[in-house]
Structure formats: structure tokens, C-alpha cells
Amino acid sequence: MTTRTFDAPDTAEGLERQALATAKRIVVKVGSSSLTSIKGGISEKSLAGLVDALAEKRNAGTEIILVSSGAIAAGLAPLGLAKRPKDLATQQAAASVGQGLLMARYTQAFSAHGVTVSQVLLTADDLMRRTQHTNAFRALNRLLNLGVVPVVNENDTVATHEIRFGDNDRLAALVAHLVRADALVLLSDVDALYDGPPSQGAKRIPLVRGPRDLEDVTIGKAGKAGVGTGGMTTKVEAASIAAGSGIHALVTSTANAAAALAGEDVGTWFAVNGNRKPVRLLWLAHLATVHGRLMLDDGAVKAVRERHRSLLPAGISEVSGDFEAGDPVEMVSHDGTVVARGLVNYSSDELPRMLGRTTQELGQAMGRGYDREVVHVDDLVLLRTSRSSKLGA
Predict the structure, then answer these.
(1) Beta carbons of 226 and 38 less than 8 angstroms apart
(2) Is residue 163 scored above 50 in pLDDT?
(3) What is the pLDDT of residue 68?
(4) Whole-angstrom Cα distance, residue 184 to residue 238?
(5) What is the CA radius of gyration of the chain?
(6) pLDDT band at residue 213, thresholds of 50, 70 and 90?
(7) How far apart are CA 8 and CA 56, in angstroms?
(8) Which of 17, 74, 239, 385 could form a disulfide with 270 if both were Cys (CB 3.0 to 4.6 A apart)?
(9) What is the mean pLDDT of residues 115-142?
(10) Could you give the C-alpha distances from 78 to 30, 46, 105, 218, 285, in angstroms and in order?
């Protein structure tokens, strides 16, 4: 294994962190383990400490959106559940009970600072479909303009396995992109990303400039509290999504919230390494459940990857999976390398008889509607080189 040295924050990073201190709009995400426990429900002390830091920042003129986990965990004790349920129906029931309790605490705590909060529940569908996406942006933007702190959570009560974000870290990254935030702050019970197990003398990683900085780092999963779903893995993924789409990102502990918002040297800073992208394409790249796979010939791989063209039937050699028009599919080369993901315009029943034929031929033989691209370039996102994933994973 290559030994990688993580230096202390340089001047450039210090200036970026100061940008967090002066940011106009920040999305802050807090995890279940920071707010709740199985035995005690919502921790009043932890919640109050977080609200104090956020309210101070809000009252100083910064717009804050809080993406808060904790609804399911908050509902465990009232329902007499000993641990986080694994089945979706019981998770939905716990979320239904816990969401109201969580919002009541937030409303009370923020009101002590003269700050009004609102509840916003989202599903992945709300950020994927253009109409819902536009409505979500308009509602959140108006709430911020009115001085409100929106408290966002996944709509666990109605979300199904098919349309779930899976964790609120990635939801927070997409919300940050949706509202055009200046920064994303991801809070948990761990103060930073380390280059190994902290219990074994590992060192804090103060700065991540890009994916290569993480190649030799072992990243932990969900913590011991047993009430969360993500762990450091999803925080790193979310921070990387944000940084790769032009948004500053910081991963640290809830105890460090005030210091983080002040731009102090805490946690792990993810430097911006990409430009802003349509939020729908971020969802497609990082969250969408793949329903099918299209194998491309060499010419189609080159057209999609290098020339940024739409995928046409003539370039497809094989189709697998069960999908309808509009479903996410992945495009792979003959060696199984995933080239891109996209929203397909035809079902898995229609597509096989179209392979290898030009759109002109299809239009003449099969009629209007069959002379379109299989995946339009606007509904396609290129991926870093990887092996093909299991369908439905």
C-alpha cells in the first residue's frame, strides 16, 4: 500500500474555509447519531447546542437550510422498539411518529432565538422530475427569502426502496446543488475523516483535493449508536458530489458546528474540483437505481465518451434488464466498463428489434417515434471508469 502524507492546511485552503465564514447560503446536514439514541429518543442538549450555532449564523445574515436525520430514531422509543427496524413498513411508521416530535423540538429551540423554521419532506422523485424539481427550488428559495430555516428530511413515510435517497448525506448534497448553496457542512459524531482507525493512532485528513487523495484511505461505516444509516462512507460520497459540482464541503462533528461555520480549522475540507451540473444528472450519476444495461460497440463508446453525443440504436450490440421508457440504464463497453448512465427512451421489449439500425431506417420501418435517440445527450452522464454494477443494486 502506498503511504500518503496529509499536510496541514495550506494558505489556499485557509482562504476557502474563510469563504465558509462569509457564505451567503449554507446547507447543513446533521445525522441521527448526533441528535438521538435508542434509549433516550431526542437528545435535548445535543439539539439545543446545534440550534444555538445555526441560529447565531442565521441571525448574522447567512441563509441556512438544515437537512436533519432523526425522524425514524425519534420514533423508536414511543413505539416501544428496541432497535432501528429493517423492514420498510416499520421504518415508515417510526418516521411518521418521530418526524412530528423532531420538528416540535426544532420549532421550540429556534424560536428561542427568534428564528422561524419550516418542514420540507422530499423524495428522490422530487429532484428527478422537472416539475417537482422546479417546485422544490421555488419553495425553498422563498422560505430562505422570508428568513425561515427550512428543515429538510427524506419523506420516509411514503418513500419506497425504489425512490429512496438511502441516506440524508446524499440528499443534502443534492439539496445544496438544488438551492445553489455556497457550501455544504456534514455533521455527525466523528470530528473528521482519518487516514485509518482513530483508535490506532490515525491522523486527521484536513484537506481532500480530489478522489486521488482518498485512494489509500479506509473509510468507516455506520457508528455504534445503531440509529443512523450512513457512516463516514456516505459523508465522503456526499462531500465528493458537492465538491465535484462546484460547492465547498466540510465533514466534521456536530460539536464543532460553531467552529466550522466560523471558518476554523476543524474537520476535513473538500476542495472544489468541478463545475456545477444539472441536479438531475447528479441524481442519475450517484443515486439512480439502474434497471438495465446497454452494451455499446467501440464506435458508440467513442461517440458517447469523447464526442459527447446521444446514444443511437446503431451503436448498441446487446440489451439486458427489464426497464420501461424513462428508466435509468447504464451503458457499458464490451469489457464491462461502465461508460455512462442515462434515461432510456424505449422499453426493454422494444429495444432489441432496433439494434444496429439507423434512426432513419427505424422511422421508415416502424413509424414516427422510433426515429429518436435511445438516450439523449441531455439525459446522459459520463462516469469515471468502473466495472458494471448488479442490476437493481
Answers:
(1) yes
(2) no
(3) 92
(4) 9
(5) 22
(6) confident
(7) 29
(8) 239
(9) 84
(10) 22, 19, 15, 37, 38
- Long-range contacts formed by 299-308: CB under 8 A, 24+ apart: 300/331, 301/333, 301/339, 304/331, 304/339, 304/340, 304/380, 304/382, 305/339, 305/340, 305/382, 308/377, 308/382
CB count within 10 Å of CB 87 equals 8
CA gap 276, 244 in Å, rounded: 8
Better-predicted residue by pLDDT, 114 or 228: 114
The DSSP call for residue 38 is: T
User: How many other CB atoms are there within 10 angstroms of residue 350's CB atom?
Assistant: 16
Name the amino acid, one letter, at 154: E
- Whether 169 contacts 29, CB under 8 Å: yes
Report CA torsion sign: 206, 209, 210, 212. negative
Which residue, chain included where needed, has cell 427550512?
150
Give the separation between CA 281 and CA 343, rounded to whole angstroms: 10
Give me the DSSP letters along 139-163: HHHHHHHTT-EEEEEE-TTT--GGG
The CA-CA-CA angle for residues 328, 388, 282, to 5°, reads: 45
Q: Mean pLDDT across the stretch 176-187?
A: 94
Q: Report the residue count for the chain.
A: 393
Per-residue pLDDT band for 52 (boundaries 50, 70, 90) equals: very high
User: 173-191 burial, b for 16+ CB within 10 Å, e for fewer?
Assistant: bbbbbbbebbbbbbbbbbb
202: amino acid identity, one letter: A
Judged by average pLDDT, the poorest of 23-32, 137-146, 231-240, 364-373 is 364-373
Grid coordinates of 19: 469563504
Q: In what order do the strands lie in the sheet with 316-321?
A: 316-321, 292-296, 328-332, 337-343, 380-387
Distance CA 195, CA 1 (A): 13
Mention every residue, 6+ apart, whose C-beta is less than 8 A from residue 324: 291, 347, 348
Band of pLDDT at residue 129, cut at 50, 70 and 90: low
Neighbours of 134 (CB within 10 A): 11
- The phi, psi pair for 108, rounded to 5°, reads -65, -45
Identity of residue 1: M
